[in-house]
Amino acid sequence: MIARFLLGIFLSVVMVVAGTSTYLFLGTRTSHVAAVPQKPSVSTPRPQAFSVSGTIYIAQSGAIYSLSAGRFHQLTAEAGWTMPTVAPDGNLIAVRQFAQYSDVYLLNRFGSVIRRVTNNVAPPSNRDPGANHWSFYPRLSADGKTLWMAYDQPKFGYDVVLSIWAMPLSGTVKQGKLWTNASDYTGGDVQPVPVKGGVIYTKYDYGPDSKLVGRLWFTNRAYSAGKALTTPAEDCRNPSLSPAGNEVAMICTYGKQVSYLTIASWNGSTLGARKTIISNQLVAQPIWAPDGSGIAYLAPGVPAGPFQLWFLPKEVYAPTPTPTPSPGVSPAASPSPALPVKPIQVTTNNGFDATSPLAWG
Does position 112 have pLDDT exceeding 90, yes or no? Predict the structure, then answer.
């Protein structure tokens, strides 16, 4: 009976981790003939010529790196660090995963720990692994006072699912509030994005054909039913809100072994028509540039290769209209059409964690 109990606990933990995102298998999609991914901060090959604005924070092999002015800097040790996000004051929030639990930490911009925000490990007197907890996908409210996250409460025996919680950043989970009602045996609700008037998140559930799919969901009050923003047939996840707050980037699979980068307008309660931007790459973790200049994301650089960092200039998804020639002006005198803008591959020899959202500050 003890062995069966421990096996059940192990399987429940696997379900928690596996259910947080369909991208957990993506990190293993590496070619056996490809070169071993290097640390982003190695001095050779020299840093890429292309430089993004601001600072991107990214995870690889359990460490968090920053990219600014064309150079990477390692901020933490390779010790289970993942899922960084930028606080309004410039500090970082990140998850540290351990063998049987994970916690949210507040870090300074150089990666040093300021404070452990959650305490998800059971007391030493309780040897039941089920007494530990998991926190994933931390995000802060616009004022920096409220921490949103996916958290494995409530849980009932082996049925462990993640739900969206909100808690005071300066407080504890006991002061937090459960916001969503996750579906049983699905992995639950993950990837919260606080927006004006509520929260957008990814809800995993079974579609009409009994296949597990992701849907973007919105709720404006704690523990309400909320409403679906996308359909089971679209199978979408990884919501990312534009700096202006009027567009959402997401990943949709449409029930296939693909991951399209898709954009839709957002009016505060409903998504507009979908616009597929990239359909020829295995895209993961899109994030908008704070200055609105484009979207960064992860995708393999070669088929079945490790995930690299890419940048999509704004001109791709919001091109400037071509001026119409004035009456009487010959076509030969008109400007030549601009060449199509393509995604820019920022890195070539790394292997970033496709399960970890990017942060950009």
Answer: yes
The secondary element (H helix, E strand) that includes residue 2 is helix 2-19
Rounded Cα distance between 96 and 99, Å, is 10
pLDDT of amino acid 35: 67
Residue 101 CA to residue 123 CA, distance in Å, equals 12
Do 286 and 321 touch, CB atoms closer than 8 A?
A: no
Query: Cα-Cα-Cα-Cα dihedral of 43, 361, 251, 224, to 10°?
Result: 140
Q: Please give the model's pTM, rounded to 2 decimal places.
A: 0.86
Full 3-state SS string of 13-65: HHHHHHHCCHHHHHHHCCCCCCCCCCCCCCCCCCCCCCCCCCCEEEEECCEEE
Model pLDDT for residues 223-247, shown as the tens digit of each residue:
999 999 999 999 999 999 999 999 9
The DSSP output letter for 205 is: E
Position 327 scores a pLDDT of 59
For the ranges 9-13, 179-183, 278-282, 299-303, the lowest mean pLDDT is seen at: 9-13
Residue 159's pLDDT is what? 72
- Distance CA(140)–CA(166), nearest Å, equals 9
> Which one, of 45, 38, 36, 89, lies nearest residue 65 by Cα?
38
Q: Can you give the three-state secondary structure of 111-149, one letter per residue? A: CCEEEECCCCCCCCCCCCHHHCCCEEEEEECCCCCEEEE
**CA distances (Å), 38 to each of 151, 283, 351, in order?**
32, 21, 7
Tokens of residue 199, six digits: 């929260």
Site of tokens 């870090």: 107
What is the rounded distance in angstroms from the CA atom of residue 83 to the CA atom of residue 64?
A: 9
Answer for the pair 198, 179: CB distance below 8 angstroms, yes or no: no
**Res 58: pLDDT:** 98
Report the Cα–Cα distance between both ends of the chain, in Å, rounded: 51
191: exposed, middle or buried (Cβ count in 10 Å: 0-12, 13-18, 19+): buried
Q: Are 307 and 30 in contact (CB under 8 A)?
A: no
